Amino acid sequence: MNFKEMFLVLAISLAITVTNAEYVSYDQYKVYKIVPSSDAEVQILLDVQKSNQYYFWSDVVALNSDVRIMVDPAKQVEFEKYFESVKIPARVVIQDVQNMINEQLQRPATRSSKYAWDYYLSLDEIFAWLDQVVADHPDVATAVTIGTSVEGRPIRGVKIDFKKQANPIIGMIEGGIHAREWISPATVTYIINEFLTSSDPDVKLMAENIVWHIFPVTNPDGYAYTFSDNRMWRKNRSTYNHTSCAMYGLSDDISNGIDLNRNFGFLWMSIGASDIPCAETFAGHVEFSEPESRAIANYVTTIKNEGHMVYYFAFHSYSQMVLVPYSHVAGSTVLEAPNYGDMFEVAIRGMDKLKAVHGTEYEVGTSAEILYPVSGSSFDWVKGVAEIPIVYLFELRDVGEFGFLLPPARIIPNNEEIMAGLIEMEKVTRRLGYYHISDGERVVVSFVLFALALFVAM
Ligand SMILES: [Zn+2]
């Protein structure tokens, strides 16, 4: 190859790189709000969702639920005409999504030397912050890497262990499995900071009596991609299933990713997941196909042998809900999770305390009851396979006004109320006796107490 040819090859490959790395603009994209008021309207919306042509912000499509759909400027006329023809009101609630993205990226002009949750950190900044946390608390905090993402980024977090006792109570916190849900890592880093620095006796009790394993960004490739390329990215960045999405009028890049929260090996692909790579809820070609989901599951399996693992919390947005496992059950079948009643009570009491802080209301229930049935999620796997007793998925602020684009000024209020909720949940769990006996034993004890009560009553 002569110099001229080499230059040409270089120029072409550079052009390709630039094309691939192009930042996706949401200029003039609108978000519409639709509230289906009959089963027929729900079905129409589900069909529209299945067409994969528009971007459903909320996966929620249920009777009287608040459905937010983002629409490309080129498709807005067609979209509006269609909903007029089926006589379902579709109201524009966001005029220009890119505007709102730009606002969310704002950082205060003067910033304190320590991060104060007044803006959203990038992945590299979160890693640097974690390094600092470990350096500042060497006796208590240890850096942990549980695996490597598809693109080779570490899945990093901290282990917080104040007492170094044998057979401790253990809890794990998962953040950022869905890339665009930025409030999740912003909440999880805040929890780490509270556990390490708070002087509040309740927070200290929760931090010091439990060994915590906390991971702010379990989907690092996706999170980095929301900063560099596409703010609305949800999945990981696997190209294994790459295919054309032209038939849906979507960019092929949409197929470069698996929804990690549908990839876990518990009832995988049975409901509420897609086998189409162009879908936001694509579950992968096989359960646990992704290194990120395997890393989480392997780590849970490892630490549950190091003591008595009681807690697993996963943080998402948005909707203001606490989801109780299992996500595929509703009505009387919720009791497939043997301690559903306890989990429900713990969450309800926690959300009462949460509401007392800023008046924010959270709903509590299984996903199938208050959202939609789902399978293959991390928290259902933790409950159903790892058999951890107290397990939740939190859908943080808000209920759709800003959705994933929650303004930085709302990070702190969100975090304050979540801390209040968690503290109460820990208290109630402790009072219910979860620190002394295992889940299996609890069921036996409840049964014996029940039999005894019957005997006394007779
Ligand atoms: Zn999510």
From TrEMBL:
Question: What is one process in the GO biological process aspect for this record?
Answer: proteolysis
Q: Which Pfam families match?
A: Peptidase_M14 (PF00246), Propep_M14 (PF02244)
Per the entry, what this protein does is: Involved in the digestion of the blood meal.
Any one GO MF term held by the record is: zinc ion binding
**Record organism:** Heliothis virescens (Tobacco budworm moth)
**Database matches in SMART domains:** Zn_pept
Q: Which residues form the Peptidase M14 domain?
A: 119-429
Is the keyword Hydrolase assigned to this protein? yes
Q: Which GO terms describe its cellular component?
A: extracellular space
Q: What family classification does the UniProt entry report for this protein?
A: Belongs to the peptidase M14 family.
Q: Which domain of life is it from?
A: Eukaryota
Which CDD domains did the record assign?
M14_CP_A-B_like
Q: Which residues form the signal peptide?
A: 1-21
| Residues the record marks as active site | E395 (proton donor/acceptor)
Subcellular locations according to the entry: Secreted
What InterPro entries does the record point to?
Answer: CARBOXYPEPT_ZN_2 (IPR057247), M14A-like_propep (IPR036990), M14A_act_pep (IPR003146), Peptidase_M14 (IPR000834)
Q: What is this protein called?
A: Zinc carboxypeptidase A 1
Its lineage reads: Eukaryota, Metazoa, Ecdysozoa, Arthropoda, Hexapoda
Q: Which UniProt keywords apply?
A: Carboxypeptidase, Disulfide bond, Hydrolase, Metal-binding, Metalloprotease, Protease, Secreted, Signal, Zinc
Q: Which SUPFAM superfamilies match?
A: Protease propeptides/inhibitors, Zn-dependent exopeptidases
Which cofactor(s) does the record list? Zn(2+)
